[in-house]
Structure formats: C-alpha cells, structure tokens
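Re: [help] complex structure
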Amino acid sequence: MNKTMQRKYARLLVRAGVNIQKGQTLIVRAQTESYPFIELLTDEAYKAGAGDVQIEWSNQTLSRLHYRHRSVTALSRVHPWEEAKMKEESEQLPAAIRLVSEDPDGLRGINQEKLKKVRQKRYPILRPYQEQMENKYQWLVAAIPGKAWAKKMFPGLRTSAAVEKLWEAIFEACLVTKDNDPVAAWEEKDRLMEEKSRVLNACRFDYLEYKNALGTDFRCHLMPRSLWCAGGEKTLGGVFFNPNMPTEEVFTTPMKGKCEGRLVASMPLSYQGVLIEGFYIDYKDGKAVAWDAKVGKEALDGILQSDEGAKMLGELALVPVNSPISRQGLLYYCTLFDENASCHVAIGRGYTNCVEGFEDMTREELLDMGVNDSQVHVDFMIGTPDLTITGWKDGKATPVFVNGDWAI
Amino acid sequence: MNKTMQRKYARLLVRAGVNIQKGQTLIVRAQTESYPFIELLTDEAYKAGAGDVQIEWSNQTLSRLHYRHRSVTALSRVHPWEEAKMKEESEQLPAAIRLVSEDPDGLRGINQEKLKKVRQKRYPILRPYQEQMENKYQWLVAAIPGKAWAKKMFPGLRTSAAVEKLWEAIFEACLVTKDNDPVAAWEEKDRLMEEKSRVLNACRFDYLEYKNALGTDFRCHLMPRSLWCAGGEKTLGGVFFNPNMPTEEVFTTPMKGKCEGRLVASMPLSYQGVLIEGFYIDYKDGKAVAWDAKVGKEALDGILQSDEGAKMLGELALVPVNSPISRQGLLYYCTLFDENASCHVAIGRGYTNCVEGFEDMTREELLDMGVNDSQVHVDFMIGTPDLTITGWKDGKATPVFVNGDWAI
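Output below.
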C-alpha cells in the first residue's frame, strides 16, 4: 500500500513539482539509501515524457569520510569534468529535483571551518553557471525518509516504523492521500497561495516590524518593487513549476542592508548536517553584528562569515502558526518542513524573481536595486504563537500577523 | 560478526587487490544497493592511504528503464563531461575497483540489438582513453552480494539468508576467514600461481587441443611469445596488484585467427544482465562461423557480432575441476566465479600483457604480433570433469589436462 502511495508521490513530484517537459532531461540528486524510491521516480519521469533521467547520488557517511580524510585543497578542487557538466547543464537547462533525506545531525563533529573554506573556494567557480541558469529552469526540493532522519524525529520507534511514520507525515504535508489526485490538489493550492500574495502586494509596505516574547524585536525594509510570491512560479520561458513541496509560505526579497534589531530562532536549524539550536542574531544597519547559539555556534559562525552577503538577509517569509504543517505538531529538524510551520527569514542570497519586472532586468540591475548576493541562502525560523508583525507604509501601521496568525 | 568479516574483505580489496598507493585516487564502481559495504570500503581505502575515493554508482533497475525508454541515439551519446572525466582518468591513472553484485538475469527482455548498437556507438569514443591507460594502472574486479543475485543462487532461502550465504561463499573463495590475515594469504597464493605459470611457459606450445564428451573438439594456436600469467600482475610503473578476486586461472593470449573446431559451453554465461545457456560456437580459420544457444541466443548474437574482433578469441585459461571454487559446488551465474571453477576462453580482446617483452612494445606492434582487438572481452566456460587438453610442440604431444585436472 505504501508503495502505491510512494508512486503517487513520485508522479506528483515530476508533474506538479518540476512539470517535466516532453524530451527534457531530469537530474535527480538523492542519497544512495533512497534507491528504491528513485526507481519509482525515474519510471514516473519517463512516463511523464522525460527524455533522460540522470541521478547524482550522494551518501552522507561517505561525505563524513571525505571531510575527515581529505585536505581543504583536495575537497575544494572542481575537476574539469565537473565544470564541463555544469556548463552543459547551464546550456541545456534540465529540470532538477533534490530529494532531502539526510540525517539532520549527520555531519556533527566535522570541522566547520573546513566546510566553510571548501564552500568559499568552490563557489567562485560554480557561481557563473548557477547565475546563468537562474530563473530559467524548473527545480524542486522535496523530501523522502532516511533512516537516521526518521529515527531522529521518532526516537521511540523501531527504524522501520519511524520510516513509515515519516512517509505518512510527508504524504500529508504534500497533499497525497489515498483517494485524491494530488496533482489536482496542488493546482487548487497554488490558486489559494497566489491570492494571499496578491493581498500583500497591494499593501506596498515600506518595512515590517516583528515582535514576540522570545526576544525578537526587529524591523526590515522592503524594496519599492519587492514582490510577495507563494506556491508555484514560472521559468523565464513560461513553464509553471513548484520549487518546494511542501510549501505554505508567502515570501519576498527585502532591501539588503536595511534592517535592525534582534531575531531569535524559534526552532533548531539543520545546516549541512549540523544542528544549530537556541540562537539569536543582532542586526545593525542591515548587517549581522552579534550572534550566539547554545548548540552549533561554530556552524552558525561558518554561515554568517561565508562572505559579506551572508551578514545580510535575502528573504522574509510569512507562515501562520496554524499552517497545515504546523498543525502536524512535528519537529522535522529539516528546513523544508519546519520553515513551513513558522515565519522565517533567510540569511544571504535573495530571490531575483521576487522583484516586480525582474523578467526585463539584468542580474546586475536587480542587485543594484537591493537584492542581496551571497554564496549562502539559509532559512531560519522565528515564528511563535505570540508573534506580531506590523506593516508600515508612509508612517501608518497595518497589523499583518497577530498572535502568530494572519491579521490582514 | 559479518560486519567484521566485511571490513576484513574491504581491507583485502584495497591492499592485496588494487594495492592503493599513498595519495592515489581510487574509483569504485558499484550498485546503489551496495552502499553499506561501500562505506566500509571507502573507510579502508582512506586508511590505506588513498588521496581521494570517488564512487560511480549504478543501479540495474534504472538501467532497465533507461534502455526501455530512451533511443539508441540518446543512450549512445557520450556527454562532453563524460569524455572530460575519462581524459582526466587516463592522465591521472587512479586505481579502480568494480564490484559485481547485479542480478545475472536482471536485464532479460531488453532489446539486445539496441544494447549492441549502443556499445558499438560508444566504443570508438571511449577506446582511445582505455588504450592510453592499458597496463598503466591497478584495477580489480571483485564481488559483493546483491539481493536478486543471492536469491538466484539460493532460491530456497529467504532474501536475508541468501545474502548471508553468498557473503560466506565470497569470503571463502577470496580466502577471508575468521582468524587469518587475508592479505598474507594472498601473498602466498600469488606465489603458488606464479609457479604454475612458470611451468607452462617452459613448454612453449605451438597449439592446444581441447576434447570432451560434451562436444568440444578444438585446436587453438598460441603466439611464439604468448606468456602464461596467473594471480597478480604489475603495472608498467611497477605496482603489483591482483586484478581479479577470486582467481584460480592460469591464462594467456592466443594467436588471433588461428583456431578451429567446436567449443561447447559447460556453464551458463551471464552477459550484461542476460543469461545465455546451452550454447556452442564453431570456429574455422580462427573465426566464429556458426553458433547456437538454447537460451539467450539474441545476446550471444549481440556479442559475436559486435565487431570483427568479436569473432576471434582473446584468452585461453586453465582451471582444474577441483579448484577451490569448483569444490564449493555452487553455480554463481557470474563469470568472476564460474570462470574460476572451469577452463574457459574469451571471445574478443586479448591481454597485451600476456606477451613476452610487452613492456617495450607499442600497442600496434602487439596487435601485429597476433593479440586480438575488439570492443568486447567475454569469458565463457568450457571445462568438464572429462576434459583433456593436449599441448603440441613441434609435432610432439604433452598432456596438459586429463579428466579436467592438471597433468603437467
């Protein structure tokens, strides 16, 4: 029975997710332990018309070994063939699905300074290809259970039961039920999400103000042309796709370098296999100036010190505390889910397509206008049941969130 | 306990197998279902001094899907990045381990004509890189259990028990016991194998004659400088390694185009996921002129029609019917094992390093001398308990095998 549901889910990812086009190549990035699901997914991708399906396998245990045994120089090396592969991708624009299933804490104990240096060395080489592809291809981040991840979420259960339980949670979060057509369910969902973003876009706030008892006291300016987005989006070529499954957020790109105050995390953050817990960041003149974490401080340092842009913000996202995923009452230790149970912001790179008229602007024009640039884009959760968010426009206040829920 | 044995086996493969050198890259080619063993192997490779360990994952179920859904043109395409990768390999000469674990019959039903065409189209592109690496790097073919393979061998057992049983058989065949040092056991084995080849090399036979009641009646000439090899060998750079684990064969490269008579297969042959059973091949003037198979005829056609060289032979190998692997009494449906339980020959490409003085000759000179060239190299088993092999030198007969066992 679970196999039938998994097949339904696979079909959803290739159709309502990346919306694979006839003859288009699909690249799937997944952990080796996920291979039985990848077999289903590949079959569904070909059935949906994919011209080729290429799998890029990872394995977190092997990543640990590589990081432990190899030097920064060896780890940072981008092989000529890797660059050739990226060049080909940036020209041919395959659709891409990344399937999260890693242990949220699986790289604990790995030297964070080393990880940061490797990212910093590889980024300048990879960046031109990433930028060339920006907004041009369909991509999707979705999840499937990994054994260690499932055990982390349900430590009281045997592994097989924990995996089963996590499958059920993912199906529920992604609107896959025994009797429905999930592709149709997502069409309806995308319609509702678009309505929400339309209401916010009509307000044209100058800045948002966040406050709660946890200690968040924060103001962040928007760009005059900041656009609130939600649910699916379109490639520049006009192909509609859903980049995240699940998704509950209405989000935009703020004005870089124009925020101040304290943001206190309301949930743990798993970043590249390490959990960061009990942390806050203080911003002044738009930049992170002080921060601390009860657990994983070194990883937080690593993120915020990646480059100049990592000190600034790239996303504001609004999610009510009673979102469907929030109502599941689960802590996933996985941003893809936890960000959809809580208001959040993103450290680092902004979305260039959350700007009115972005289709007709160059990347440079968008950055000049106030979209932040960085090698990192890391969401962290700040929503609480007492969070208030006020939108200010020409000195006039409009309640956006009251008690963690929509007030607009 | 099995985990401890697996680790011992992994250590054997990287040390006595490819004999990884300090700082050298190791490439491992394996099926995704093997990932738990690959984690052990990677750890052992780094401990043995590998500078980098790269895994190239395959998945037979995905191969089926690719072959079914994609055109010959799409399947044959060698991406520029694939070529860049091979170029890098041919220059940097990493060690390579291929771990067999596939279902011997897992690609049954796939169009064999399509498979052949894909091989034919890819080969001319890959060939220069393969030739450039020939005899220059350490390589190893070894095996680990795959679920479908284990069930094929032990159909009466539950999957987990079948896998366990196949592990035990592999450990035994590869001299890994609970108490021994398998690396030392292989040193001793290599010494004994070398002695056997020395005896044969002293004979300088003009040709070998094979006969048994199954219908084999066959004569095959050697080159004047054909060299019998066995066990480990050396790269041109002087690194000793064992290219097959297990191995029981003493083998050489015959003179191409100089054989005649019938060879009858004594065991099924699994080639690229398809079983070929109950077959024979008739040779005249050194070339296959007629053949038939009770099962898998299309796959046999595909092999023999790959190119001109596929009509000729590239290897003669001698294995007594009482070899340690033969005594296991198992049919592995896997050439790596079955070839070590039976005398065999290889269709196609010959080994250039089974020629006296090959170190100082160009590839062209070696081919001119009589080493066969082909895009395929496919062993098939002809040994039986009544097989006699006679070595002829200047009209004088010397019994080499009598009743399937050494007579020399």
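Residues 112-133 of chain B form the longest helix (22 residues).
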